[in-house]
Amino acid sequence: MSKLERPREIIEFCLKPLNLPTTSEEYKEVYRRLEHVIKTFQLAVKKSEPVAVDFSEMKTITINEAAHGDD
Length: 71
Known about the structure:
By secondary structure, the chain is an all-alpha fold. It has helices at 7-15, 25-44, 65-68. α1 (7-15) crosses α2. The protein starts with 6 loop residues before the first helix and ends with a helix.
């Protein structure tokens, strides 16, 4: 997987597993909030180019559903 730099690429990658309709109000609101967070972060690091996010470096989280109930 290549690194993602643009807020739009990062947001779309993050929201894809949720399979939300892109026209829904919920999707639009989450997109708006994530875009604000990413752009704020990118400005805070004071770089001249956007911060790249490499999701292949993200640690895997294993959830034990049996320990929390399988409802």
